[in-house]
Specification:
Blueprint (H helix, E strand, L loop, with lengths): L7 H7 L14 H25 L6 H16 L6 H14 L5 H10 L2 H6 L14 H6 L8 H42 L10
Helix pairs in contact: 2-4, 3-4
Length: about 200
């Protein structure tokens, strides 16, 4: 009888992230506070960083949020469970995508001196950003002049989700067809008779 051998290093890495035995709800008041924190502090900070430095904070914002909430919970003598951390992490990642932050750059470019000096400021279409100074002075996207630009962003998000969803459906159908074909081949294959074929 062969003896099963285990690699200690491999077992160490396998045991780092064990699947949970029970599944719990991660939406708690701490998740709501995390969402408010992300919306009020992290998103504007990320937009400001993008505009000033030219690069975003990226995945660092997710980890900063999680680490900050772990430390606040520790100081309050409370513990955050794994489902709550999971919700915080992925909520921060979803919010930090900030699809509308590109509109801030667009409105800056429409009224910038380089755009006027190059002579392109007058030719920028409304679906990019409105060029009326009265609209830009309001500093709000909640105006009908911004509707084409905001609508284009929403259409891009929606069409991206449809493309991802349709590609997943196509892959599922392809796997289903392959499974059916393989099962049909197995059933059609002649079974060997043990008496005739020694």
């Amino acid at each position: 009888m062969s003896e099963v051998r285990y690699d200690k290093e491999l077992e160490t890495y396998r045991n780092l992230m064990l699947p949970p035995g029970t599944f719990e709800d991660g939406f708690r008041w701490s998740s709501l506070v995390g969402a408010v924190f992300i919306a009020l502090l992290m998103v504007p900070g990320a937009m400001y960083m993008q505009l000033v430095a030219g690069f975003g904070v990226g995945p660092a914002a997710q980890w900063v949020t999680v680490i900050l909430f772990i430390e606040v919970a520790r100081r309050a003598h409370k513990t955050l469970r794994r489902p709550e951390l999971f919700v915080l992490f992925y909520m921060a990642g979803a919010v930090m995508a900030a699809p509308f932050s590109g509109l801030l750059w667009n409105q800056y470019y429409v009224q910038s001196w380089p755009a006027y000096a190059a002579g392109v400021a007058q030719g920028i279409p409304n679906w990019f950003a409105p060029s009326d100074p009265a609209v830009l002075d309001q500093r709000s996207f909640m105006m009908w002049q911004w509707l084409p630009a905001v609508g284009l962003v929403i259409f891009g998000l929606f069409s991206g989700m449809v493309l991802v969803f349709s590609s997943k459906i196509k892959m599922g159908i392809a796997k289903l067809r392959r499974t059916i074909r393989e099962k049909g081949d197995d059933e059609a294959a002649p079974e060997s008779d043990p008496e005739t074929n020694p």
